[in-house]
Amino acid sequence: MLVSNKSLKWLKWVILFCCIVFISRWAVLYGPYIFSFDSQHYTRLDRIPYEMFTPDEIKNAPGMTDKSIISYYPQDGTRSEGIQVEYDGRRDIKELEEYLLSLGYHEGYDPIVGKRWYSSGKFRRAYIIGGEGNTVLGFSR
To answer: What are the TM regions of this chain, as residue ranges (predicted)?
Structure first.
């Protein structure tokens, strides 16, 4: 059984249409996140940026809720790439310090910002900010 030239032409148009639909869908869903040169602020409920930008250090952090705000800062000039989570309310600092120790970080002191945590992994520096407001756990390269 031979396939006619007319049916092959029809099949080419169907394949072309499917490719255009797939590429358009990808560009609409992921394009704003990939081509955004500014910081991203999102929660766990925002699935696309959460899956694209959030490393395991933040995903597995203790006390994460759907209201915790995650901020991703891409590298810009001399500023290094960083990511932080701002918890909804205050968190136990000791619990976060133990979490950093379990990831292989060791405590250090920075004369400008105070207590820091250092590692030789993907993110080299970590910090915890705990005050009267919300607690912040951050990582930077």
So the answer is: 13-35
Structure token pair of residue 79: 């500023």
What is the number of H-type helices and E-type strands within the chain? 4, 7
Ranges of each domain in the chain: 1-35, 40-140
| Lookup result for tokens 């600092």 | 93
Digitized pLDDT (tens) for each residue of the chain, 141 residues in all: 556 677 778 888 889 888 888 887 766 666 665 555 566 888 999 888 888 878 888 999 998 899 999 998 887 777 788 899 999 888 888 999 999 999 999 999 888 878 899 988 766 889 988 877 889 999 988
Among the listed residues 138, 124, 141, 128, the one whose alpha carbon sits nearest the alpha carbon of residue 69: 138
Alpha-carbon separation of residue 42 from 18, 57, 72 (angstroms): 32, 16, 9
Identify whether the C-beta of residue 117 lies closer than 8 Å to the C-beta of residue 60: no
* Interatomic CA distance for residues 3 and 46, integer angstroms: 48
